[in-house]
Specification:
single chain; 2 domains; FAD/NAD(P)-binding domain; 17 strands; 14 helices; seven-stranded mixed sheet; 482 residues; alpha/beta
Length: 482
């Protein structure tokens, strides 16, 4: 860790203006107002990111409002009270309790963007500044910083990668003609990706997780009349949140335990909870603070076993839908506007007005085919950086400054400091948020990212009074039900 505590004129460059980058910029600026903090993002107005920017009013936060607090001033719920927004549906669902309400995702984006605008400095030599541009490479040593697509150079003492969730990877062979077919939509969150489609024509979505749910709701709201199909290997849908009850943390005493043993323990606890009248969701809430510690204890082969065999069922129980979203999805399913299939696409054919997918469905020997005018990739964000041709990460890899993990989850890090290709820990290059999943597995949601950002901002600001507990322990201390 570099000693920055006595320097009044340090520049911190943060690449990525979504939740992780914005929160780090705000907290570093609050901790060291004499520093110059540069938040680099190509968006016209940084602070929203993909999760809280490319969304509609019916796209809701996946957790209640009280779990979205980040330690900023004013708190999110206090800001909501004075924002003048209409939350009748959300409050009706939560019996009038704001803390328990599932709110539109865009509201958190509004909140973060306003915090950023309020904190922006007018002094070019210090404070928080936003830089509109795309970082495409590093400056040549001995200088530290990044080069932007427009040719500008940003020099900084420290560089933090906060690029968040990366665009999805198409579940197609690299040489598939479908990549270039106009019916294929590789990234549904790209600007205008869903515009121009025939609402009477059938749509096929690849993936049945939360991304698919968002896109199905968006298509339905925008007038889709033709049938919608969604396919994944197991055909599993996300489950819904349910209020009420409590369950005590129980995982830590079981460690170390294999993925299979832990899965059995969780299922047994869920059955016991149901017998006692407690929703199984409380069992998952009790597991969540220990996830980083569990991941830390697993061997590489155990992690691979979990990702290959257990992750799909874990995801649908862990990453749940707001009740109102689940109700909208149920309505689409019951009306047959949406059909969910378990199986895999075996081959594609060109067809009049689109393409034809041939599927091998679970439990059936016969092949089934579907025609679709649009094929939408809803497989969710990618993380296999070694296969991603992003200019910045490609340059980092060329310079041997990063080490993508062998499981394709992100970058190898040590307490947010990036490891180079030889495993050495950097003293100037850091990463936060989803990029650090190899060390922590789940660091994609607000509570975990907030804990991570708090830790890094204090370390960079050289807060000597802060205890140096392992981040996995910090997650555990966050308590059940986060």
């Amino acid at each position: 860790m570099p000693d920055l505590s006595t320097s009044p004129a340090r520049t911190i460059a943060i690449v990525g203006g979504g939740f992780s980058g914005t929160l780090l910029a705000l907290k570093l600026t609050a901790a060291r107002p004499e520093w110059r903090v540069l938040l680099i993002d190509p968006a016209v107005r940084a602070g929203r990111g993909l999760a809280y920017g490319a969304c509609e009013p019916y796209h809701l936060l996946n957790v209640p409002a009280h779990r979205m607090e980040t330690g900023l001033t004013p708190p999110f719920q206090a800001w909501l009270a004075g924002a003048g927004v209409h939350l009748d549906d959300a409050l009706a669902e939560s019996d009038g309790v704001m803390a328990d309400a599932f709110l539109p995702r865009a509201l958190l984006g509004d909140y973060l963007q306003q915090r950023l605008e309020d904190a922006r400095s007018t002094d070019p030599a210090r404070g928080l500044h936003t830089v509109r541009g795309e970082a495409v490479g590093l400056l040549d040593a001995p200088r530290r910083g990044v080069r932007l697509l427009d040719g500008r150079e940003i020099v900084g003492d420290l560089l933090v990668l906060a690029t968040g969730n990366l665009p999805p990877r198409a579940p197609l062979p690299g040489d598939s003609w479908l990549h270039d077919h106009p019916s294929f939509i590789p990234d549904p969150w790209a600007p205008r990706a869903l515009e121009g489609g025939d609402p009477e024509a059938p749509v096929l979505m690849l993936g049945t997780g939360l991304t698919m749910v968002d896109i199905a709701l968006k298509l339905a709201a925008e007038g889709q009349k033709g049938p919608m199909y969604a396919v994944s290997r197991r055909g599993l849908l996300p489950t819904a949140h349910k209020a009420g009850g409590a369950w005590s943390p129980f995982v830590a005493p079981l460690l170390p335990a294999s993925p299979l043993a832990l899965s059995r323990a969780i299922r047994a606890a869920a059955r016991q909870a149901e017998r006692q009248g407690t929703p199984w969701q409380r069992v998952m809430d009790a597991v969540r603070p220990a996830i980083a510690r569990v991941w830390e204890t697993w061997t590489p082969s155990q992690r691979r076993q979990f990702l290959r065999h257990l992750r799909p069922r874990w995801d649908v129980h862990r990453h749940r839908m707001a009740p109102r979203v689940a109700a909208r999805l149920d309505a689409l399913l019951e009306s047959a506007a949406l059909t969910v299939l378990g199986g895999r696409v075996t081959r594609w054919e060109r067809a009049e007005g689109g393409v034809r997918a041939h599927l091998h469905l679970r439990g059936l020997n016969a092949e089934q085919s579907l025609r679709a005018a649009r094929v939408i990739n809803c497989t969710g964000p990618r993380s296999d950086l070694d296969r991603l041709a992003n200019p910045l990460f490609a340059d980092l890899a060329r310079r041997r400054l990063i080490r993508p993990d062998p499981l394709g989850l992100g970058l190898e890090t040590t307490d947010c400091a990036v490891q180079d290709a030889d495993g050495r820990v950097s003293d100037w290059l850091y990463a936060v948020g989803p990029l650090t999943r190899p060390a922590l597995w789940e660091v994609t949601a607000v509570p975990e990212i907030t804990a991570q950002i708090d830790r890094l901002s204090h370390e960079l600001a050289q807060d000597a009074e802060r205890p140096r507990a392992a981040l996995a322990e910090v997650f555990i201390d966050m308590g059940a039900g986060i």
